[in-house]
Amino acid sequence: MKAADGTNARGPGRCRQPAFTLIEIMMAMVIFSLVVTAIYATWTLIIKSAKVGLEASAQLQRERIAMRTIEESLGCARSFAADLQHYGFWAENGDGVMLSFVARLPDSFLRSGRFGDFDVRRVTFSLENGPDSERQLVMRQSPILMDADKDENEKEHPLVLARGVNKMAFEFWDSRQNQWVNEWLQTNQLPKMIKVTLGFTVKKPNQSYGATESRQEISRIVALPSVMVPANYQRPNQPPGVGGQPPGVGGPNPVNPSDPKSR
Fold this sequence. Notes:
This protein has a domain at 53-232. The protein contains four helices and ten strands. It has helices spanning 22-74, 84-87, 150-153, 231-234; strands spanning 77-78, 90-92, 98-104, 120-129, 135-143, 159-163, 165-174, 179-181, 193-206, 210-223. The protein starts with 21 loop residues before the first helix and ends in a 29-residue tail after the last helix.
């Protein structure tokens, strides 16, 4: 069959339809793969960054709560010379680090709802081994003059303030030496100031080595607003007052609160 100009319509001179070659298709697939890979890498980086940010925020929150709890409880410390067997102030550094004292705690303090109206409680902070041999800061409470609570004072349900705590240390201000000391042997007295140091192990992601650990320490100086109440304030030696007055007011040995010599 011949065309009008005399050429063969099916011969080599026919018109060809435009199309993609195999090389062009392969190049398009490579570019598409690169775009998808870049999108996936960006999305993965965003997820990892968000996870790291949440973990760092949670770690900082735990550190803040742990230190804040110790500060708040120390600010409520109480001690009475007439009842030293119940109001002793005990602190130890080293392997068996712990801090134990009696405080009148507010209703907003952690786990206060478990004790009802018993706001005067012994508070104990200690470092113990947790899951996977991870050291953790544990707080226990028990009302004074009562049997120890099984959940609080044994190892069933203690309150874990923070995990990954590799250090807890205390320093006490000695007024006689006018310097910080590492031991507080005067268990029948409250120190004027105490320096609390907590060390935390923080895990940070690393693209080459998986995960790395870093250590950071937080220190706070807490001034105790209370002092030990002398025994004569609880058990006055003066006879009952005259004319219906309470002991120590009037009578043969009156007590004048404004006169330091009479205290």
